[in-house]
Design a protein that fits this description.
362 residues, alpha+beta, Jelly Rolls, 5-stranded antiparallel beta sheet, 33% helix
């Protein structure tokens, strides 16, 4: 009995068009090898696509029928679900000619260079610290490298979020509506992920301050990454909370449970914010020098301590501090409720700032 001829030859197909496909992008490749279909890293298999490719492979048998008159490659589609993709044969996998073998070797070299280019930079970012090397290598395959000239809009306020950006070199600025800079971000910083997480439009415009190289992750690939690696989802949602708190502080509000870094807001501004809001609560500070606490009643300082220092002297010592963590909690202990203010708030602040100036001049 004659053994049936194997019609499933190894090959590579490429997506040429994509219309609202929930999984794949234009440029994605699918490999047929050893009777198996391999899809791009971090992306799930699609039964519509698998069925379509199997139908193409079975009906054609060989690839002599894949090329139309005039050299145009035959185009196929997945059949569609909520979206639709068109794909075509890129090349046969067995590389029968020397030219095809050289092409394959060149692609493999580009692939290795792509991994090396991104991997070391991504490895040093906090967001990817928990990922294993193999997972991080998979992620780099989804990133698109882009260089943006100086003074160009990267994100515009009100637009829908479409990409997460990782700054590889250069610098960008977050801009307010009046054109003032809210913040600046350099190498290793991430932006654009907040609107992807929340589903809300971009909240602030972002411009380049210099020629800036970024790695982009599309919203579609972003969702696939979060689905496969929940630890990234947790990290990004924590980042969302921190940034929301920072924006709240910048807008002149503070609420119980709010925390942050003194690199984002100075102690002077923080104390003034609590005073102007007439808050009653406790400000805890974790500093390099040690822990400190400042208690407020209706915006006035009634008690403060830093190591052995108390009240005014403690506040004076806190004002020049530039780094550390803060947390604000509503309410004060009952035993402090009847304490009078340690002095007029603005008077204490002015005295402390004057002492700082005098110390600089010595």
């Amino acid at each position: 009995m004659k053994k049936p001829v194997n019609k499933f030859r190894d090959a590579i197909f490429i997506v040429t068009e994509e219309h609202s496909c929930p999984i794949y992008n234009a440029g994605d490749e699918f490999k047929i090898e050893n009777f198996s279909l391999t899809v791009p890293a971090l992306k799930p298999d699609c039964l519509y696509l698998a069925q379509a490719i199997a139908g193409v492979m079975t009906s054609m048998g060989s690839y002599t029928g894949f090329v139309k008159i005039g050299g145009q490659k035959s185009r196929f589609d997945c059949g569609g679900c909520d979206g639709l993709i068109h794909f075509e044969l890129k090349k046969e996998r067995d590389f029968a000619t020397l030219q095809m073998k050289l092409l394959n070797e060149a692609e493999e070299r580009r692939h290795r260079q792509h991994l090396e280019k991104f991997f070391n930079k991504l490895r040093n970012l906090d967001i990817f610290e928990s990922l294993e090397d193999d997972a991080l290598s998979d992620l780099t395959l989804l990133l698109e490298l882009t260089t943006i000239p100086i003074d160009k809009v990267v994100l515009k306020k009100g637009d829908p979020g479409s990409n997460m950006y990782i700054v590889l070199s250069g610098q960008v600025a977050v801009m307010a509506d009046d054109g003032t800079r809210i913040a600046e971000m350099g190498e290793g910083k991430i932006f654009g992920e907040m609107s992807l997480l929340s589903g809300e439009p971009v909240t602030s415009s972002i411009y380049t301050l210099a020629e800036t190289q970024v790695a982009k992750l599309s919203v579609k690939n972003f969702k696939h990454v979060l689905k496969k690696y929940p630890v990234l989802q947790l990290f990004l949602f924590k980042l969302l909370v921190v940034r929301a708190q920072t924006m709240t502080l910048r807008s002149g509000n503070i609420t119980s449970g709010m925390s942050g870094e003194l690199a984002e807001i100075s102690i002077v501004d923080l104390l003034q914010l609590i005073n102007s809001s007439q808050k009653t609560g406790r400000l805890d500070l974790a500093l390099e020098e040690g822990k400190a606490m400042v208690f407020f009643k209706e915006g006035e300082i009634i008690h403060a301590r830093l190591l052995t220092l108390r009240n005014k002297e403690a506040v004076y010592a806190l004002l020049p501090v530039k780094s550390g963590h803060f947390a604000y909690t509503k309410g004060i202990p009952q035993e402090l409720d009847k304490l009078p203010p340690i002095g007029g708030f603005m008077g204490i602040l002015m005295e402390g700032l004057q002492r700082i100036d005098e110390n600089k001049g010595q």
